[in-house]
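Narrative of activities, Objective 1.

The group set out to show that a structural description can be obtained from nothing but a protein's sequence at a throughput compatible with the screening campaign. Below is one input-output pair from the validation batch, recorded exactly as produced.
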Amino acid sequence: MIRRSPVFKQAVASALEKKMVFVGGPRQVGKSTFALSLLGPKATERHPAYLNWDNPKVPSLLRAMKLPDNEPLLILDEIHKYARWRNLVKGIYDTEKSFRKIVVTGSARLDYYRKGGDSLANRYRYFRLHPLSLMELNPKDPNRKDLDALLRFSGFPEPLSSQNESEWRIWQRDRLTRVVREDLRDLEQVREISLIEHLVELLPGKVGSPLSVKSLREDLQVDHKTAERWVQILENLYVCFRIAPYGAPKVRAVKKEKKLYLWDWSMVEKPGPRFENLVASQLLKYCHWIEDTEGFVMELRFLRDTDGRECDFVVLKQGKPIFAVECKTGEESVSPSVKYFAEKTNIPIFYQVHLGQARFSSGRVSVLPFIDFCKDTGMP
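Output recorded for this entry:
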């Protein structure tokens, strides 16, 4: 079994000393498995402190406040499926906080519903669980074999653990079906489920380029407002995410169209965009980690000017750029666009990452393998 980073576990344990902890993230990313690990290395779904709302016995027990005795930590899984879950969790926490720690887990619905109302204000910390990263897959010495496995099978625990082509395809199909047909039904009033499924099929071909909602509108034969809303729904469901352009001073930067990436980068067929998507996911995970553990406002952007020059990613901290990343599948000299932006912007360092072995520097640009980038920068 692939284990989560102990640093993530330590951050959650530290937060539990003061508040409840909510753990959110994509469906099948391993939230329940992680929560069970907090109960002990051998804990299973039958542990008395693991209370899953889908278990027919659990709802009546929780509504009656019949909690397991002598359990200092409670795991409340999928409890947000209950219409009045906020008040229920608030009541459990307010009456038990001196005796118990509480972890609440859930996927898109938890993230969506927790934002409504303020009954839980100042009572919890929220952590986002991402797909497994290179440093989690092999913390001691990640290698090209580990990276190839991530690129091929994604960072979701089940297909990454099995590394079986047939099981990966079946898992991917079943996951998307459940996301679109179950999570979507619970969150939104959408009748055109088949068109949403068609949109999901279109997205892998849009990865890495500025997303034209106009083009999607034409493909789906719907109006612009509807196409944009559907993309936003898929973002809420952890199918995809978009990053906005960075309006760097002294360059004529584009400011409108966003770039799109998938939470499951293994859906992307072409090697170049798939690698870029993996890097985007790693950088988003880094930004969320800093936000969730240190409280800084982090942003992942891209840089593109009106002449077509582009740098794939810029990471901002409190509104200021701290580094930029360009992706290349092969070992190449420094990209002319990266050279240009290194001269024209105040971004302190540029990384050009690739899948080869070469490593060298040119001014503020460091060219290095993606594996070394993860090691050197302390990516989570």
